[in-house]
């Protein structure tokens, strides 16, 4: 049995992610022989050199040489933080009997404010120079002078995320958007689409 994995949101620069693939599914439980308990994978990445890395809900990880199973053997311990967070986030629906668990991971849902807010490059100026079209979400918003006397710039105002928000990078989500050749891309080089 496999479970759906979340995107591996990271601040790792793009040059370290060349050839990396974000996995959509993974095993239900994993551990190494040295670990004292089974963990639930939250994210998975297959690197270009063939390495397979699973990160856990409890912030640990495994890299190669690990065991996996659908149900841990009787008497084996399971990491409570991993189990609770994975069920609470909806990765699986069978939580502890009689309790409803809730956990809402950040960076998975689109942000409340557009990631291009206050950007001096992620907008296209429209005639008149007072408004611009946000390249990240497509909304038309006012342009303002920002930055104060020592760092002056002209930028699009902070605004709610529009309906046409670009697709997130599987590694950086919407945190590192930039413009290259007139297109919005993640700073790691992965294309985004609207």
Explain what you see:
The protein is mainly β and 194 residues long. 5% of the residues lie in helices and 28% in strands. It has one helix spanning 80-88; strands at residues 2-4, 21-22, 25-27, 29-31, 41-46, 52-56, 61-63, 67-69, 123-125, 131-134, 140-146, 153-156, 177-180, 183-186. It has a four-stranded antiparallel beta sheet, with no helix packed on it. Strands 9-10-11-12 form a four-stranded antiparallel beta sheet, with no helix packed on it. The chain has a two-stranded antiparallel ribbon with strand order 1-3. It is elongated. The relative contact order is 0.15. The mean pLDDT is 86.
State the main characteristics:
single chain, 194 residues, mainly beta, four-stranded antiparallel beta sheet, 1 helix, 14 strands, elongated
Topology diagram in text:
Elements lengths: L1 E3 L16 E2 L2 E3 L1 E3 L9 E6 L5 E5 L4 E3 L3 E3 L10 H9 L34 E3 L5 E4 L5 E7 L6 E4 L20 E4 L2 E4 L8
Poorly predicted segments: none
Helix percentage range: under 10%
Strand order of the largest sheet: 2-5-6-7
The assigned structural class equals mainly beta
What is the overall shape? elongated
Number of strands: 14
| CA gyration radius, whole angstroms | 21 Å
Order of helices and strands: EEEEEEEEHEEEEEE
Overall pLDDT, averaged?
86
Number of helices: 1
Strand portion, in percent? Answer: 25-35%
Instruction: Report how far the terminal alpha carbons are from each other.
Output: 33 Å
Largest sheet: 4 strands, antiparallel
Oligomer: single chain
């Amino acid at each position: 049995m496999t479970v759906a994995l979340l995107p591996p949101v990271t601040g790792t620069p793009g040059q370290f992610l060349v050839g990396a693939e974000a996995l959509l599914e993974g095993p239900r439980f994993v551990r190494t022989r040295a670990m004292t308990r089974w963990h639930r994978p939250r994210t998975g990445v297959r690197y270009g050199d063939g390495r397979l890395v699973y990160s856990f809900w409890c912030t640990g990880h495994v890299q190669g040489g690990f065991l996996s199973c659908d149900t841990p053997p009787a008497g084996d311990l399971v990491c409570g933080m991993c189990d609770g967070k994975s069920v609470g986030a909806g990765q699986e629906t069978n939580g502890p009997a009689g309790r409803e668990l809730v956990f809402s991971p950040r960076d998975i849902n689109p942000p409340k404010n557009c990631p291009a807010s206050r950007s001096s490059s992620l907008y296209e100026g429209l005639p008149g120079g007072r408004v611009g079209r946000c390249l990240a979400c497509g909304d038309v918003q006012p342009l303002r002078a920002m930055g104060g006397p020592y760092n002056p710039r002209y930028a699009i105002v902070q605004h709610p995320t529009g309906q046409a928000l670009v697709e997130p990078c599987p590694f950086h989500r919407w945190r590192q958007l930039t413009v290259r050749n007139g297109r919005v891309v993640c700073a790691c080089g992965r294309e985004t689409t609207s």
